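User: Show me a protein chain along with its predicted structure.
Assistant: Here is one chain, sequence first, then structure tokens.
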Amino acid sequence: MGDVIEVDVLVIGAGISGIFAAKFWLDTHPGSRLVILDRDNCIGGTWNSRRGYDTFWTQWTVGTAEFSDQPMPRPPDEDVYLEFFKAKHTTKYLNDYVDSHSYSGQTLRDRVKLLAEVQSVQKVDGGWTVVSKERETPLQHTFKTAKLIVASGLTSIPNIPSLPGRDGFLGQVLHQDDFGSSNVLTSPEVKNITVLGGGKSSADMVYESVKAGKTVSWVLKATDTAGPGFFLSPKGVGPYKNAFEIGMTRLAATFTPSIMNGINWWTRLLHCSKYGPRLIAGFWESVDTKARTEANYQRKGVQNFDKLSPHSPIFWQNCTGGLLNHPDFFDTIADNVRIYVGDIECLDKDVLRLKSGDQIPTDGLLCGTGWQPSLQFFSEEQCRQLGLPHLVDDESPDEKSHWTALETEADAKVLATFPQLETPPPVFLKPITKSPYRLYRHVVPLCESGNASKDRSIVFIGQIGVGNYFPVVECQSIWTTAYLDGKLDLPSIEEQEKDVALFTTWCRRRYLSNGIRGNTMTFELIGYTDTLLRDLDLRSNRKGWFKDIFFSVWARDFGSLKAEFMEKYGYNEIDK
């Protein structure tokens, strides 16, 4: 069965979230026995070396994709485009980071156990018992810990679609998770590549396959789908070098109706006045029109190219999306890729058959089909108790009634504040089978207020959808450290529930299908980090009113948070 290991803190996940959560806990508790478990064979999560490939680019920019205590060296010019850069530099940065932080004679890397698949998590005698299995052996390990930090991420476990006939298929079937470590682009035996899915990962694999000289087909799902992703030019305007820099300003954040960005005279003017909503609608319509014009979806002579056009306006974010790092992306697809719209019937030995009747020669099938929840080591009952997504049918009548009442009240408040959210366009909406996340501040289970909570032993880091995890997990880690140590006062559980209900109902209204899980923050990064720091009464990330509004948020803006936090909450640089 393996051994039993007692630790003070156990972290599940060695990606961006787990690395910084462990680092900050050890900053404030350097003598802690802390272990990090990860199911992969290398650290970095989405950005690890196994999943990367040379032409994989980030969606964030130089100076924003780093932690505040350690700048990332600027990549060489050939690896930078409009300040976006190749993902391998984030991979190297994270590896350097775990090697350069040491506590009580152990680096962060020394504390990581790789290929450790968490099997179960149980609450026992006030602590947590976690059973993990070594992925390459039958050996199991049992960890007993007083505090548990869950940082398993949203993109850890591949979602492979049902593929009837797969056993008889002679080619390779790969998820985007394995694309970087495969030989699919270099193998002479793989001549015909078919890519499934309409999101950014699928688009990247299609583009790279064409550039590798393969014959490429792109299959978009025909039914029960929010449609293909919205792909935008990364170019900036005015003083901003790129679109990401614009999105990292507080001014830009106010151009979306969001409860996270504060309700004041300016946001009321933009979203509640007579002319403000028209101005905002015109702004988003211009962004939408520009993106569709640049893509030229209606170009002549290209079969089904128009099928890449998003089904909903960009404002509503009902589909996936991303920034393009290749200026020739759409022309490359139009000139070299056959596009199909249909649902899969089966795989044959060297063919993918669609229900539409199309038969697509295929030696390699690449799946950009998303991810399964990474919290499968919790039972359905645990998910319900902790505030994690769980089957709605498993809720008791009283629980359903309780949350329905809270959400009905919250929905009225959302629509009174942002009336434009009441009338979304007619689009496909994913069916709701599971509850949304119901974590307070998106990190902790609902719990009793005050310092002496009955249980402050578990937190969740990085379980939200944002464009840049570095500042988010930095603020989450600081907040949860104060929480786990009982130094952070919380409102009453009734107020926590109202806060959760307000966010989840707003999220469904604002982001439609993408908002069902209640953890989407496409435009809320700054508002969210501000909220966490406001809870802690910390303001080190502020730069003065003018720069706060018009300047992008950089990693260095958070540089003095650690010292400010430790002084305010009575931490020392020595072990307690």
